[in-house]
């Protein structure tokens, strides 16, 4: 897929300095540019690369004035970084503009869908599924019975959406994610064995949610596991049954949230955090990576450690952790001196 400088400048409302017919077919860092790539310059510390880059086209700020000759065609814009991001989004839309239904795929006769959809080969759409407009379901994806997908949803290859799941508008479910699998519910019996507790709830994902590759969101035992609007989940996260995650909270990879925990809105949770079940975490909470949360957390707390302490308390304590060997040596010297004098 090729684009000319003229086409790009039109999208970005920029001004061309150089050859308007210069063509590019891919994007690159400025230091890795080559004859068919497009790059950008916004950080002054990378300015020296613009004089050596082999990129065909470079997006720059409108106040940029070269000090010597540049081989690349320039497109001048108000903000090079924002314009490049806009172009990435535009490129992604063009790249993912597939429509139609590929064969072989299975769509139940009771399923319905809106306009401008794409369903890839070997995808499975179950009974009574409702699919909105502009939805893309990639090959080998599964959408279980009675599920509902809103408009502009993307379900990438290999993702599995179990029955009764409700997904809002503008959501992305990445490859290998599993939404709606059974929660981890077992009850011990008199034989010392474990009987499965039926998981008859569902998962509700509101608008503008991203679910990363390999992430699992379990269905509720009763009621719903709920992911509120604007939540961003990284790869390989475990969200257990009946968890609720508040609006615009972001969670990094390998975090696990145990059952029935409620997480507030606008929280930031680092990677490999472990959160126990049946607790409440307030709004705007910040949890550092590899922390263990075993208690309720108030609004605006910042936590670190396992079990987690207040962020400032942890850092103060850490000074003593580091000095513990020296402190022990000093303590032994004092004991020895006291014993000698005694």
Automatic annotation (TrEMBL):
EC number: 2.3.1.191
Pfam family, one: LpxD
Keywords: Acyltransferase, Lipid A biosynthesis, Lipid biosynthesis, Lipid metabolism, Repeat, Transferase
Catalysed reactions, as listed in the record: a UDP-3-O-[(3R)-3-hydroxyacyl]-alpha-D-glucosamine + a (3R)-hydroxyacyl-[ACP] = a UDP-2-N,3-O-bis[(3R)-3-hydroxyacyl]-alpha-D-glucosamine + holo-[ACP] + H(+)
Biological or metabolic pathway of the protein: Bacterial outer membrane biogenesis; LPS lipid A biosynthesis
SUPFAM superfamilies xrefs: Trimeric LpxA-like enzymes
Positions annotated as active site in the UniProt record: 241
Highest taxon, organism lineage: Bacteria
Keyword hit for Transmembrane: no
Residue span(s) of domain UDP-3-O-[3-hydroxymyristoyl] glucosamine N-acyltransferase non-repeat region: 22-89
UniProt entry tagged with the keyword RNA-binding: no
Recorded family membership: Belongs to the transferase hexapeptide repeat family. LpxD subfamily.
Oligomer and partners: Homotrimer.
Function comment: Catalyzes the N-acylation of UDP-3-O-acylglucosamine using 3-hydroxyacyl-ACP as the acyl donor. Is involved in the biosynthesis of lipid A, a phosphorylated glycolipid that anchors the lipopolysaccharide to the outer membrane of the cell.
UniProt cross-references to PANTHER family, sorted A to Z: UDP-3-O-ACYLGLUCOSAMINE N-ACYLTRANSFERASE, UDP-3-O-ACYLGLUCOSAMINE N-ACYLTRANSFERASE 1, MITOCHONDRIAL-RELATED
Protein name per UniProt: UDP-3-O-acylglucosamine N-acyltransferase
Species whose genome carries this gene: Mesonia mobilis
